[in-house]
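User: Here's a structure from my thesis project, written as structure tokens. My advisor, Dr. K., wants to see whether a designed sequence matches the one we expressed. Can you design one independently, without my sequence as a hint?
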């Protein structure tokens, strides 16, 4: 299997026009490259459900709050194209920054409320950058369906809300988080962890599971659940919990009482690596 690598928007336009004329549905998997098994799951879902899969690979400068983070982001393009081809993607769209931002960008997408808490509170401008580039990609590719990982639940909620509120004609598909045997969610950031840090990284999932158990046991007070789950991080060297919160799954706003499905989300630093994770929890039926 080969995948066609396209870097220019006008070339992609021509190719996608003929795919649309042939009546084939287009699936988009937006990524920043450095692809791993978690992305593989997104591509697999797109290949199953649509007839022509486009994987975009673009390290989006406007979503990074730290310039150094943007510069050191890995860009293994050749390996990524081979990865996409092996999974059955037909097109890899890997534009340059000048192709996406040919002049100073003056229009941005702000998704209020949904993007303000959790990671949004610690990474100013991040979700504005994400929503803006994703809307650009939607307009460039015009996919029937676009695939995003549950691992980035706030990003998914922001993109879903943007698409609904702005009537973007695309179906947003959520793909469940892929985990290592100890529960650690796949992420390109896991590569930055040394062996000792890698063991500690599993604390995030342990904390989320503690929250899930406490909720399933009938605890309705969100603060009590947060206290219990956050305690998992106590006493570990080199680990710092940034937030652990219980939020409404659509608005991503903190809740006091747990009366229906909730998203438990956390971010923690392990050494100099920031990890995030989340799970959807349902209270017991009683
Ligand atoms: O999740 C990512 O990789 C990025 O935030 C995305 C959605 C490709 C936008 O740049």
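Assistant: Designed independently from the structure alone:
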């Amino acid at each position: 299997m080969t995948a066609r690598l396209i870097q220019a928007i006008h070339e992609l336009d021509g190719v996608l026009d003929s795919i649309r004329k042939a009546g084939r549905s287009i699936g988009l998997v937006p990524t920043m490259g450095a692809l791993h098994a978690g992305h593989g799951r997104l591509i697999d879902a797109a290949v199953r459900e649509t007839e022509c899969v486009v994987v975009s690979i673009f390290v989006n400068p406007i979503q990074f709050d730290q310039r150094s983070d943007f510069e050191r982001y890995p860009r293994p393009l050749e390996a990524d194209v081979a990865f996409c081809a092996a999974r059955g993607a037909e097109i890899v769209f890997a534009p340059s920054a000048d192709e996406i931002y040919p002049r100073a960008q003056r229009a941005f997408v702000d998704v209020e409320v949904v993007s303000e808490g959790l990671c949004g509170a610690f990474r100013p401008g991040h979700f504005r950058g994400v929503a803006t580039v994703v809307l650009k990609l939607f307009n460039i590719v015009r996919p029937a369906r676009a695939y995003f990982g549950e691992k980035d639940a706030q990003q998914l909620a922001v993109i879903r809300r943007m698409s609904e509120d702005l009537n973007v004609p695309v179906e947003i598909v959520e793909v469940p988080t892929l985990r290592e045997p100890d529960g650690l969610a796949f992420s390109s950031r896991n590569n930055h962890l040394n062996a000792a840090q890698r063991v500690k990284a599993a604390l995030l999932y342990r904390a989320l599971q503690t929250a899930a158990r406490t909720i399933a046991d009938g605890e309705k007070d969100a603060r009590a659940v947060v206290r219990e789950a956050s305690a998992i991080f106590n006493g570990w060297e080199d680990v710092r919990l940034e937030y652990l919160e219980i939020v409404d799954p659509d608005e991503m706003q903190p809740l006091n009482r747990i009366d229906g499905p909730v998203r438990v989300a956390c971010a923690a630093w392990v050494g100099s690596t920031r990890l995030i994770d989340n799970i959807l929890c349902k209270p017991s039926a009683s």
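When you compare it with your expressed construct, this may help: The chain has a mean pLDDT of 97.
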